[in-house]
Amino acid sequence: TAPKAYLVRPSFGTLKPGESQEIQIILQPQQGDMSKDANNHRFLVQAVAIPNNEQVPRESWASFPKDEVQEHRLGVAVHQEAAAPEPRASSIPTDAPQNLKEEYDKLVQYTLMLEKEKKRLEADLNDLKGHASSGGDGFSKLTLIIAVMMAFLASYSAQFFSR
């Protein structure tokens, strides 16, 4: 009855027979105290049998015959606690931003920036690997061959002149 007041994840999905799914429902921070009105809110849970456990897109629900769709309404009950609850990793902090979309967009931008930096670092690493395998700061193969030949000639000439 108040879809914008809650964050539900996942909001839809397909389950195999006997399978279960944990759903996270979070009351969004709003102007004023929504918890008073929340006791009047309800959730509609719908289910329909499908062949072969295929995924059903959200748009397809309107095409199912009403007599095949099972529905169950869940009422919301908000309980005020005397003491503040222990913070959990999944709870939204009280200073959470009013607009979660803005925070999501910031996270997406940060992720894209990290991916770009990763690609740059991988390219630098590949350049360094290519530089090292081509002889880079070491001796080239030609230099090593000339040095071996010089050592051989030096030892041969030392034997020749010592006689």
Automatic annotation (TrEMBL):
<dbReference type="InterPro" id="IPR000535">
    <property type="entry name" value="MSP_dom"/>
</dbReference>
<dbReference type="GO" id="GO:0005789">
    <property type="term" value="C:endoplasmic reticulum membrane"/>
</dbReference>
<keyword id="KW-1133">Transmembrane helix</keyword>
<dbReference type="GO" id="GO:0090158">
    <property type="term" value="P:endoplasmic reticulum membrane organization"/>
</dbReference>
<feature type="transmembrane region" description="Helical">
    <location>
        <begin position="142"/>
        <end position="161"/>
    </location>
</feature>
<dbReference type="Pfam" id="PF00635">
    <property type="entry name" value="Motile_Sperm"/>
</dbReference>
<keyword id="KW-0472">Membrane</keyword>
<keyword id="KW-0812">Transmembrane</keyword>
<dbReference type="InterPro" id="IPR013783">
    <property type="entry name" value="Ig-like_fold"/>
</dbReference>
<dbReference type="InterPro" id="IPR008962">
    <property type="entry name" value="PapD-like_sf"/>
</dbReference>
<dbReference type="GO" id="GO:0061817">
    <property type="term" value="P:endoplasmic reticulum-plasma membrane tethering"/>
</dbReference>
<dbReference type="InterPro" id="IPR016763">
    <property type="entry name" value="VAP"/>
</dbReference>
<comment type="similarity">
    <text>Belongs to the VAMP-associated protein (VAP) (TC 9.B.17) family.</text>
</comment>
<protein>
    <recommendedName>
        <fullName>MSP domain-containing protein</fullName>
    </recommendedName>
</protein>
<dbReference type="GO" id="GO:0005886">
    <property type="term" value="C:plasma membrane"/>
</dbReference>
<feature type="domain" description="MSP">
    <location>
        <begin position="1"/>
        <end position="79"/>
    </location>
</feature>
